[in-house]
């Protein structure tokens, strides 16, 4: 159990220390790989401006899947 807490704390501190969205996603990707996942995605929807909220999606999926995701408007 102690190693689980340490793992969680290590990644929490790494996420809090990220200087931009690419560093943040790099930490998420590393954690996902350690958990046995080959791919992962991170999305954030900014509620402002209300008239046109911005959505950001970062992922490490293969390019063909990203193209299909966009063309099918899965988001």
Explain briefly what this protein structure is.
By secondary structure, the chain is α+β, with helices and mostly antiparallel strands.
What is the overall silhouette?
Answer: flat
Strand arrangement across the biggest beta sheet: 1-2
- How far is the first residue's CA from the last residue's CA? 36 Å
Give start-end ranges of low-pLDDT stretches: none
Helix content: 40-55%
- Helix and strand pattern: HHEEH
Q: How does the major sheet shape up?
A: 2 strands, antiparallel
| Tally of contiguous helical segments | 3
In percent terms, what proportion of residues is strand? Answer: 15-25%
Number of strands: 2
What is the SS-derived class? alpha+beta
Give the mean pLDDT: 91
Supply Rg: 15 Å
